[in-house]
């Protein structure tokens, strides 16, 4: 496929590319080869850190030979090229470094349940994207692979920990890529890169076969997309539970892709622009984006009221810090098993090493207290949202931040998260409560950089319906960053 056609295909979202394949206008192989052209054109972004081109070519050829693209039996996404975040989306036989120098030669032994669902949907997996070590940072600049460049500007982070996926989607390399979210790791990159970033509700998908949950329920997995309909279709593909899961979310009343075709009933929306944590001041440009979104939603018939639930900020920050120290101690054990020796300090990021060392001394009582605090703050949050359906807040309290801010050691894990929360604000509350949350690219700075606005609710359907309304009222589809592939 020539480069001109490859770059023209970049303008289509995932469903648009799949529709071409279903109509017989392109093959899965042609879609893949076009995406590979775009990967090569976007190498300077450092978004894709593992090429799985041969695997992708084999899968695309099998789809073409089977004829399933025309029958639709795999669903509406069959034949679309897709990238996996190099964390939480294991693919047996593929490299899986998780952004860690200690795991630089690690290869996955199992395929994650969610990746099996992607394969069942006919997505053609052909690469893996950059991520910070173990997803610890809301920026993507690991020393193992180096920083990923934000297509909007080389001076701002693409966010993290799903920053490689976000940069690849924002630049037009692929229409969608996988992500995971523990304190904002889908929504922060979505905000920094001008994308749709949905964190599903707790239990929407499975962590099988390797785990029953992530970070005691804080982590959820989904994707970065440019359109709401792609996010809905991908969520349909991975909704469900594996045998033996400790818990799961109720199945939706209808497929999410169908749900967004119907506008939501008038929603009672609580709006806040300030942080739930003491101290940070929200940037005026972010405030303006949230207020403009609120005015738009009011014009669509929704009831907007100022206010927000309050939480015990110290309890939340302490709990998140403790859960991360325990998780990092566990990942250190994985590195030790992989290497067959004791890993060295210089094989980890300095901030990860702080978490690891604290994890070695975290007591069982502290761990249990952290879990109890998460549950207590969830109840407090939910009780204060009684009488309202949706919470409207900033995604980030700031405009897209610079590099070397959100990955630096601060002496303690708690101090590290204090710095993170001064930028991210509300994102962690969706993880703590288990609520669904979506970041939408509804604002811009004076110099054209993206600003995300966040909606939170107990379930995804209402968020996707609201997002679809806003996508029409405040369209972002035509925005292209300076780093869009094929632009130069």
From TrEMBL:
Residues 30-458 form the Amidase domain. One of its GO terms (molecular function) is amidase activity. Belongs to the amidase family. The keyword Hydrolase applies. It catalyses: a monocarboxylic acid amide + H2O = a monocarboxylate + NH4(+). This is amidase. Keywords: Hydrolase. InterPro entries: Amidase, Amidase_dom, AS_sf. Its EC number is 3.5.1.4. Pfam families: Amidase. It comes from Mycolicibacterium chubuense. PANTHER family: GLUTAMYL-TRNA(GLN) AMIDOTRANSFERASE SUBUNIT A, MITOCHONDRIAL (PTHR11895:SF7), TRANSAMIDASE (PTHR11895). It comes from the Bacteria.
